[in-house]
Amino acid sequence: MIDFDLGDELELVRATARDFAADQLRPALREHESQRAVSEAARKAFAEIGFATLEWPEALGGSGLGALARCLVLEELAAGDPGAALALDPLGPAVYPLLELGGGEALELLGRPLVDGTGRRAVLVWNGSGARCRLERDSDHVTGSVPWVPADAVDLLVVLDEQGAFVIEDGIESSPLRGSGLRAAGASELCLDAAAIVAEWRDAAGAQRALARARLYASALMLGIMRESAEFSRQYAQDRVAFGRPIAHHQALAFLIVDMAMAVDATRVLLWDAAWRLDRGDDSFEACATAFVEAAEQGVFVTPNGVQILGGHGFMQDYPVEKFMREARALGLLWGGVDAAREDAGCELAAVEGRVSLSAEAV
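^ that's the sequence the OP posted. Answer follows.
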């Protein structure tokens, strides 16, 4: 029998994240965006709660929780402010190559110095199929550029591809970009000039698991965004009166609100299923890719309609829905975007044994 009961521990984790978002993120949403940084109080509170090491093994001082716990936390934080959620997490999805490829030694050596609440950050970039990076290797050094990352400065750069990952600590130059979404996290172009590789692992299976978990991370953020957009616009439609009744009582708008709610719930089911498979140790690459595609595509359905329901108010910064629309778009571009995720899922689903390559050529 299917059971969606999270249990006491995960419910407590989710409630803690919800309270943190309500206290620290949502009230300062516009302030964080304009300053391109989160407040010191929010950063300190985040570090004290221990969200950054939620998935670390208990032997290393982490909580020992899994992908589902991380998804619950990210959904709640993103409902408060997705840009701030990224800015607060010092390792973010860059932790997954360390976990899956480097293990405990990599976490201690490379990850531990960043989780002290000082604002230092790691960034994960994808250099495989569909990547927008332009990186060239010469032995143990890398030269090239990354056109956009959601950070103003990068202290640890983790580069992932289909065969493994490598890490760069020094020689990373950041050129700030204005960006349209996730401004609380910052935005910049990275330039590398013979930057030294300090660690490298070659393991295709581990790289696939790391990419799957990174996609799940972004999917959870997109879910939180669309949930809050749908709920905010629903409340607005119930309060806004036109032609003698709340606009939510007009059939066309009521149907749209229903479609938005269904999109949120359907995305959550796919997300939880993928996280559950990951935590069980099942092959979850296709499930995580599918969840990413669903979250990205439903996000660009829900959030623009959240703006439309508010009419002209939707484009004003007095209301958060225009911000949700911008940030859902930005998250859908990560790690090759929707096209790369859909291709990965297609390769898995179309394969009889192993994995197949897809072709756009006519048959």
